[in-house]
Protein 1
Amino acid sequence: MFQNVISAAIRGLEILPVHVETDVSNGFPQFRMVGFVTSQVREAEDRVRTALRNVDIVLPPKRITVNLSPADVPKSGSRFDLPIALGILAAARMIPPASLTNVMAVGELSLSGSLAPVTGILPIAVKAKELGIGSLLIPAANLREGRIVEGLDVIGFRDLPEVLAFLSKGVRPKEEDAASLPTPLNIYDVDFSDIRGQYRLKRAAEIAAAGFHNLLMEGPPGAGKTMAARRFPTILPSLTADESLEISQIYSVAGLLVPERPILGVRPFRSPHHTLSPAALAGGGRIPRPGELTLAHRGVLFLDEMPEFSRSALETLRQPLEDREIVISRAMGTYRFPANFLLVAAMNPCPCGYYPDMNRCRCSANAISAYRSRISQALLDRMDLFVAVRAMRYEELTGSDTAKTPEPSARIRDRVEKVRGLQQARFSGTGIRFNSEIPASRLPELCPIDAETDTLLSRAFSVLHLSARAYHRILRVSRTIADLDESERIRKKHVEEAIDYRPRVLGSGPDEEYRP
């Protein structure tokens, strides 16, 4: 007899419905599986047979054929164990075939018959709702994640007997507290008030957070660059419901969601070590998985000691910083991963970190030149803001300098949220979220400037040898500075500040301190 069970395959971040077609017929007893399956899926034969035997179900000695359709889509992982087992039992008429109508099943079977959690449940649940599926059968450990999607009957099971009891008799499993959905956390244990002084750095961080602009910090060791970067999430705009669901689906596919917190309430902050490979940064593998750039989507990617990353890894950043997505081509197809992140990077001015203080710097001119050249001009051109961070003064470090009390993150975030509101109103219905995403073709419309400001930009373009990309980024940063100033129009002072933050020759020393 024939039976069809709906399941799902993950292709990059795309969820594809898979029909697990099972036929149990007379003939030489065997178990055959077809449909572009990997070795992980083929191993389901042993897991399913053993799991059924250990729950006292004996399969008839017949020819069992399982086809995972469509055949041109590669299937991997262990999520097909449950639908394969249910398809065999329904085809053998050991459970009612009608009970699997309008039902999607996903789950891994252990040899004892219990159900183990699998990755990607959240996007699978979203896809099931889009397809009009009535019920989604998943492992109980994934129930919190599946229940995030409303309007879909998501049922979690601990073992195969519970699934069979539900399909045969309609007995729903006891859910205990698994059905309750936790509130996403957005509490931090760090704050910008921890940073003494460094007003110019804080101002640049506020601009970057408000408009989602890339930031590069250069300064000696211990100046507060890493400290500021790790506090960046505390001043970023709150996640919208759509953004939270979007990034939670990415983390679900990557297997990084915590069962107790199946939905992210804060923007991602990724800080990979400088030894990571280009494939780990962009995503890779025979069947590509999300890399660090995609895991930082809608959040922050922090590269500490940026010149220490390999040149090939750094150059991987260039295309995603422009297109805000990564395209990976394989023989089996093309995979697209979102990569709309805010890049925050930190570096020393030289290998020892103390240039241009020649009383402390012991690096040769060749060593300094080689160190700086690790960051290409093409990549430097894609940074929106550059801050040369100076060493801390003793009075600032000890708090004896009372010229200005450090501002807490909450106050900075209030201003950032206000600018976020302005951007939402400005870009309503366009798909643009932040000023950094304004297309070059719409800059004249959304970032108009007067004749005086145009003259300033013209002079800066020729004197600083700016590229077209740099010119466009100055306008976008100017728009954010004007928004922070609650100015509807971009004025000369806004453009002057944006130009002052343009990346220039590295290692030129700290800028004059900016005091708001």
Protein 2
Amino acid sequence: MNYRFLPVIFFCALGRIYTQSTLPDSCKIQIGTNLAGMSDWTTEMPFVDLMHHCRTWGTQNATWVSGGQNVWDSGVISSVPRDANGYPLQAPFLEPGLGLETGQRIYTVWASTKAWPAGTYTLLYDGEGELDFWGDADIISQQPGTILVNVTPGVDNIIQLRIDSSNPQNHIRNIRFLMPGTENTYLENPYYQPWLDRLAPFKALRFMDWGQTNNWGYPNSWSAYDEDSDSIRQPWSARSRMTDYTWTQNKGVPYEVMIDLCNRLHKDMWICVPHNASNEYIEQMALLVRDQLDPSLKVYVEYGNELWNWIFGQAQWLNKFGCVQQNKPWPEGIVPYIQNCLDIWTDVFEGQNDRLVRVVGVQGAWQDVSNRIVFNMRPGSVDAFSPAAYFGLSDNSDAELDALGSAATAADVSERVYADRENDAIPWLHAQQTEIGQALGLPMIYYEGGQHITPHPFGDEPSYAQALLDLQRDPVMYDLYDSWFDTLRAIHSGDEPALFMHFSFVADRSARYGSWGMLESVTQNTDEIPAPKYRAILDNMYAGCSEASSGIAETAPAPLSVFPNPVGETLFIRADDVSEIRLFSASGLLLFTLPHVGAIPVGQLPAGMYFITAKTGSGVLKTARFIRF
């Protein structure tokens, strides 16, 4: 991207240029986001090819058996021969000795369609056989290799795609299920444009969930440490591939896609290395990022994710092999694994170390564990340490809300969140900054953060569920976020802004499992369904940073007056003696130029943040930020 045409407002907001060592308060935090994990129920919708987030294959009776069980999933997919990309080599499948009622067809599903765009989808495939749909998809027409499908989202809220038959000599493969109007462009632009547009304002992208970092390579946490020795490490050849039939499997989205996305959007990259990766895997992963990521972008590298969190297989794996088998205390026994990973990346990036940020994740609420990890790393081998910056409910607050039950309100929840934040989250982060950041001179950044307002124990349906759901759309959530960013700025010390990676980007609400998304769906109409987290994040992303010229390489531009803001169809500008109005996307792309002020039609623009610049007759640059909802 050519930055010559970017308004000066971007320099502080994107952390590019600073002339003094002391940052203005408004520039102390930069905001990125974690991407939601790939799933068949996602409302984030990153790809126009929906096969990328279909469920892994299942098996079921190809024909109804009278008096039979006819179960939804007969569970024999592991016995079905498949090609290197995961496509079944034959259907129907019948293997003597498996106790099957009849031959088995192969199927996949999408368990939620409410975020899908309605219209005519195109399914493309290679090979010979028969495919069929059930649920919110109806076949319009078909010919060999192509099926046109009408999708009406949210009716049954599920779509099943079945392989009823497949020729073993020319099996069905390379299935692509494409959003309306993308059949001729999906190779050139594989991403859903509304998703790209709403990602545009963020500083960096963290791919922990995209890479299926937790329990990587295994279906669940308890099978992730079944081996007898940690010598069984995954080779580079075992990684997720571009040609895999789905990316919801337990190795995630290919690294090539992560890199491509960062390059397209010009975003820094935060990547997590699988805990059980071999040295060869780690080295090849680092080489791929070094050679393919835009060299003007930074890569934040982290070994695993939440290595102290016992619900994840990586924590159990490291404890078993690094501590128990080595007769070392926990957590000290996990440090050699972190050190080894970061050292390999350091070697690969030799001579380009300014591109690399080596991160050690710590437990924000467990200072002793954090200290015993970071202080045992070799001095000079770490560039930043990283707790999460969450706020939520204590056990006592959860009990009080449970006592209120269905009578609890969003205000009842927020009142307790504010109190618990003062008593817990804020002191914890102050301690991390003091005991590690100041003691070692290491920057403190945040691998995740935001609201963590969930019931206790996590996963139970609380009696005050509706209050939790209501809070996500209540204006008080904006205030919770806005004041939280003020807190993080107050905690910050150092000459560079701290990176805050919100968790997460888009996800539906759930009282039981948490409402993690700043948006509920990527196409959410926030005029109809409020998104206070998203608005607070956008407002704090730039937070008047451009007004503090002492921290910017050039004099800050004067403001323009624009209204309404947020805007629907038409934006109006109030200014004297200005000309050459330029409108930019949040990523700095010049969209169009107007010769004079007045009404600007913006109804055709996707939802997101935009910037306007204008010059006065004396050459003074004026700017404004507005949000299109």
Protein 3
Amino acid sequence: MNKQDPLAYWMAKNQGDKFSRRDWHRMALALALSPWHDHSARAQSTSTTAAAQGPSWQTDPFTLGVASGQPQPDSVVLWTRLNIAETDAAIKSQEVQVVCEVFADEALRQPVKQWRVQTHAARAHSVHVIAQGLKPGRSYWYRFVCGSATSSTGRARTSPGVHDAVSRLRMALASCQHYEQGYFVAHREMARRDLDLVLFVGDYIYESSNPQYRIRKHLGGVPQALDEYRERHAQYKSDADLQACHAAHTWVMTWDDHEVVNDYANDRDRNFTDAQVFLRRRAAAYQAYFEHMPVRLGPDPANGSQMRIHDQMAWGRLADLWTLDCRQYRDYQACPDPMRGGGRVVVGCDALADPARSMLGMAQEKWFVEGLTRSHAQWKLVAQSTQMSSSGINTPLGRSAFTDGWDGYPQARSRLLNSVAQAELKNVVLLGGDVHMNVAAQLRVRPNDEKSPIVASELVTTSVTSRGLSETLLAQIRGSNPDIVHARADERGYTLMDLKPEGMTVEFRTTPNPAQADGVFKTQAQWAIRHGVAGVQKA
């Protein structure tokens, strides 16, 4: 049987049998990658020099797929990880050479460059190639070769030159993909879209479990150590739809809390664990994150509990894009419960008025504001992990605030938005996730105050799978926050954004909760942001 034709192979293999969800899941990846698999097979005979010396594999080591990320005009990060099975256990302790091949065409007939890198067990046999010397604003195709094994083929895209006039940027915004609470069908649809980037803003994995909402099961328990975080990442990366989306598009990423543990803030977790003990756990989580993501920088060699994820990139003269880190440097949540840390809903918390408190940490905040106010790009896109617009509820005792979100850092929020207002910046768009609902909102220095001008726009994407708020609670939030012009938490999905010089159009693409393996997507709502006009408008 010819396994290079994925559809024919799966149909023949399962002829007369009822497909399981796993079979459909695997076939989704085969279909998404079928053009690349076919071309890869035809080109392998020309790749003998790349495959030169290396292991003779009993089991395919490339089962976690390939990915690209953090594009620049002349480079992009290319990633894979050798997932070594027990049938090849002897190789686990070895240093192995992997060859990365880049081509100018989808048929893999026009080789561009080749890199040879060594990988080993200390980095879980992960591979990060910073593919340099590429041309700006174009697509490339890449694959990895290790001995007798060849990976599937991925497509990567460099960003345009920083001074180039660019007519369009097409992005998908996604976050919050709890493996147990649904299938990654949002990634399946994203993989089939014509996109320049996927922008992922946090909760790529979940360390936690909730049996009440379980559709499929995590391997192992709650991760604490490096090998446990590696196992969790590998399980997520084994998902066919997620693999397809990584192979199809270049990603830009930041993180939130569940990549380590829910609601952590700086060096503190919800259990008030000793800081040094928690930082060892955070170091393990950061190391595993780096080993499984197409990012340029890993943990600080001098301090593994520190890793820079915040960054800035340009998409020609059309847009500057910042990715912010809302976890590593933040001040602790205000007015904590003495028995359990993390976020909670409070009323009458005086600490919220403290101007010294920051969500980003003062150093990152300064770096971001300086870059934002110096930017000459037509559009300024700010990707961070959560919702910036206020979502508190008016109560007889006063207004509530959820201390883990921006409502828990109101002075920091005011500083950032006041910087936008004072610099008279146009076309600032905040992009977020975390809250498991689609949100379109107006951003003012003083939230919900009509006398305070709208200075920026906000778009928050719903979760890929993670369960949302109840409609009863969401109705109270909408009623207390007129700046929120759209909010729905009952569906899962992602957000499709099409940016042009004259404006941005936005589609909230959703499927019913929970996201099923055969889920179908529709457009929940469409919004628009016009050049020079702060705030979102109905499309």
Protein 4
Amino acid sequence: MSANLLLGLSPILIVSLGALLLMMAEALSKLRNEARESPSSSLAMGSAVVLASGGVASLALWLQGPDNLMEARAALAPWLLIDRFSLFFFVILTLGAFLTVLLAGGYLPEHKLDRGEFYPLVLLSTAGAMALAAAGDLLTMFIGLEVMSLGVYAMVAFRRGSPRSVEAAMKYFLLGSFAAALLLYGGALLYGATGKTDFSSISFQLAHTGYANPTNLQQLAWENSTPLMVIGLILVVIGLAFKISAVPFHMWTPDAYEGAPTPATTFMAGAVKAGAFAMMIRVLMMAFGDVRSASWGSGWPPVLAALAVATMTVGNLIAGRQESVKRMLAYSSITHAGYMLVGVVAMAGTARAEANGAVLFYTLIYTISTVGAFGALILCGSRGAEAVSYEDLAGLGKRNPAVALALSLFIFSLAGIPPTAGFFAKLYLFKAAVSGDYIVLTVIALINTVIGAYYYLRVLVFMYFREPLPGAPIAKPMKSGHVAIALVFAALLVLALGILPSKTLQAALSSTISG
């Protein structure tokens, strides 16, 4: 194996080998019967170092330029595509997982869930998501999807003594398996229609179907395979919609998010959703990016636009009715999937490069903001005095101003209020949709943004303008250096990318999908 190939694969290899080393370290630590110390402190920091190394390697390759890795790219294509698009998502995924393991380093010991296998699960799922983001073939895509998903199923059920956690994991596993089967069956139909599994070849075949007067047997075969392609596309879109929790394929999301330990919820809302969107963009723009498949009259854009409208609207309306803050954030993540779908639809229009960059920038900001929001919620409560409902947050601004300020910052970013990065993420996304002539879709998204401000600002009302009811349990903030480090880092990113967003946006704009 050449050094060039190892360099191209270095981000995935670092995370994967780091996961294996952590598994060995965790197993060896169980053999010691010394002070029975908590494994989370060392494993969390070890995981953070591995993920930071993977992120730095991805950033270094992005800065160096994938064109300098031609040997590696040629050897890996079409199964794995090492381009700026995949490297940008590698940075997002490692960043989301980095913040997750730091949060877990404080949460798991506090809530008596301190089992070391959580950290290798996060790293292995991250490696699967990275393979998913770089996949250029249906087979690689499915393998990456399953590696990512299996680790997440285990993390959802990590609280083994909780019936709610076990029920949530079972629902997620069954529905996730059903969605994976649909995706696999759709891929099989596409292979049957085209004889190919890589996205570029499928796109080439699609571009040559539909001849009015076929001139040879090959053209006639392609013409007759069109129904298989259409059905395959429908099944693939349904499978992808499930993974990003788009309405009406969102049923698993609230229960899984609420039943899982909060660090696992954080990972699902951030890194897993980012990996799923990378997969969706790669499939739609590479395999189904031809003129007819990506047209409003005969392709997937109107279907995705309908999903975007339903996802934004339903997510917002149900989120506003929740009394559990964690469940509200779950429906909020569904709503943000709808906003990102607006950007994906815009990629089929005339402003493809602008929409591509806007979606990548939005995914980065959303990942940081949602991980920060769940992390701040972790910090708001301790074992036996967790912050679950809005009432649990009443008076927090007076009792613990620093914790309330942290949660407020991330809530502002999710709501899209300046000068946080969330404001510019929405601004650039909606601007790209307008540039692509999707005016009505943009107006609907803006209306939903205003609706969403209600339940976000409700959190602030309870923290700063309400007092706990007499005799009501009061959430007691926990003390954890790991959680504090994660929140300070995320908060600095939210503010820095809000004040100076241009360089990061420019990097996102240059991270277009390679063919």
